[in-house]
Design brief:
The chain is of the alpha/beta class. It has one domain: D-Maltodextrin-Binding Protein, domain 2 (3-Layer(aba) Sandwich). Helix content is 41%, strand content 19%.
Amino acid sequence: MKKIIKTILLFSLLASACFADLILIAHKDFPIDFISRDNLKRIYDNKMKIWPHGGSVVRVLLKRGRIHKNFCKIIKRSPSNLKRFWKKQIFTGKGLAPKSFISQENIVEFVSSNRNAIAYVDSSADIKSVKLIKLK
């Protein structure tokens, strides 16, 4: 019985470590500390193209994975729907494709060198070189 309890505890600890929270990041000098879910949706729905402080919005996505799926839930789109949406935006000339990366490390590196980028990563990612944006 003790082995079963220990095994369950071990798996629950591993599961919680594997399912860290999604966080939003931007360049260190980004003048915004908070963003609403509605504005985040507007950004990724290509309805907000210019930041209030100036400069074109640079959207960044993970190409796939659990964190990408969680992000899609926040903006109320499925991953496949989001992909189709951006293909249509590009094809009709209404928008440029979001920058997309396979690894969170590449996202953090890109965001740290782009003043107008916004992205999301797992809370376990090393974000020392970027700014955390709180979702309200």
